[in-house]
Each structure stands twice: as structure tokens, then as C-alpha cells.
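Input C-alpha cells:
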């Protein structure tokens, strides 16, 4: 991973992977899916020596957003998400925070469309709209570093569930197939749960595609 240092901590009741992706030249850092325990995420950033500048959300479920407001307030940084995901992020019945009795509505500063390229922390990032887990799920590709943050779309030898509001098993499989077709095999995949993998490994061993 050229010029990128990746930190990881597992947070919340379903052990969601929150990533801190730091530009080793500038020390600027991006948080991906801060799902809970903001103090743990802050500690990760401090140990890495990074300065947080943005939050990327792959989708709006509770286990990926519960620490967003605390981190946004602490660091005064913007939140990025897919433009099709606003209903899930804003409506507590869709993001499932109402079931936890911790209702939370997230309003991103930046809404991204499919294949939009943007810059954060000095990284060039391409957003891929990957519906299936939710209708507005996004994966974030760092082409120069060879990294994909896949959220709950693509897991190691598996895919995300599609039985929650706005999910679709057909769209999910189509989204994963698209990623496997267009990304280089040596791309490192950082999923929302469980262990990292590569695009090449998933082409060979993922039973869902």
C-alpha cells in the first residue's frame, strides 16, 4: 500500500471494522465506517500519529455510523456517503438505530455518485455504487494504493446480507461481480467485518459469484 498506513479496530456489538487510512507523507487520515466506541477510534488515530480529515461511510446501518457524530464534532471533519443512501442514513427505522433505543440520523456533507473520483487526505479515491446490502451502498477504491474499502458488500469468501430494508440479493451479486471484473487482482480488500482479502482471491474462492 504505497504511502498508506492502514489502522483497524473492531467496534460495537457485531465487531465492525473501522479503518484509519493515513497518508504517510502528510499524516492526514480518513476514517472508514466509525461504527461505535469513538474513544477507541480516537486512540487508534493518536497511536498512528494521524490527523483525521474525513469520514467515509460505505452505508448507513447502525453498526457503521454510531461514532460519526462524536468524531465529526471532535475533529470538525466532513462525512462522505453515497447519494442513494440518504434515506437509510436519515431514517432511524432504516438504519436500525431505533431498535437499539439510540435513534440517530446522519446528514453527510458530501454525497457521491457512481464512479465519482474525489480527493481526501491526499488520496485519489473512486466511489463505486454497489447496491444490494442497501440501495445506496458504496465501495471506495484507492487506485494508487491498490486498496478497496468494501463495507458489507464484499467479504472474504462471502458477501453481505440482503434481507434488510432496501436490500436485494440480485443487486448484491451483480455489484460484487462488477468489482471482481474491473479491479486488479492484487487489490487489497478491507471489508466491514472479518478478515481482509484480495480481488484475486475472491475471483477464485467466493462461492457467491
Amino acid at each position: 500500500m504505497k504511502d498508506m498506513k492502514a489502522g483497524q479496530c473492531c467496534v460495537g456489538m457485531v465487531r465492525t471494522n473501522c479503518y484509519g487510512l493515513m497518508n504517510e507523507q502528510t499524516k492526514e487520515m480518513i476514517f472508514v465506517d466509525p461504527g461505535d466506541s469513538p474513544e477507541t477510534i480516537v486512540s487508534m488515530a493518536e497511536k498512528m500519529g494521524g490527523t483525521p480529515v474525513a469520514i467515509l461511510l460505505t452505508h448507513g446501518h447502525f453498526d457503521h455510523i454510531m461514532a460519526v457524530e462524536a468524531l465529526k464534532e471532535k475533529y470538525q471533519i466532513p462525512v462522505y456517503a453515497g447519494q442513494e443512501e440518504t434515506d437509510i442514513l436519515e431514517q432511524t427505522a432504516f438504519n436500525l438505530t431505533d431498535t437499539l433505543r439510540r435513534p440517530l440520523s446522519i446528514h453527510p456533507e458530501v454525497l457521491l455518485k457512481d464512479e465519482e473520483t474525489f480527493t481526501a487526505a491526499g488520496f485519489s479515491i473512486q466511489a463505486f455504487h454497489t447496491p444490494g446490502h442497501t440501495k445506496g451502498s458504496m465501495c471506495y477504491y484507492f487506485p494508487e494504493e491498490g486498496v478497496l474499502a468494501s463495507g458489507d458488500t464484499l467479504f472474504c469468501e462471502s458477501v453481505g446480507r440482503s434481507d434488510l430494508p432496501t436490500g436485494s440479493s440480485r443487486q448484491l451479486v451483480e455489484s460484487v461481480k462488477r468489482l471482481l471484473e474491473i479491479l486488479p487482482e492484487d487489490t487489497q480488500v478491507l471489508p466491514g467485518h472479518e478478515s481482509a482479502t484480495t480481488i484475486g482471491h475472491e475471483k477464485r474462492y467466493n462461492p457467491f459469484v
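The chain has a mean pLDDT of 97. The radius of gyration is 15 Å.
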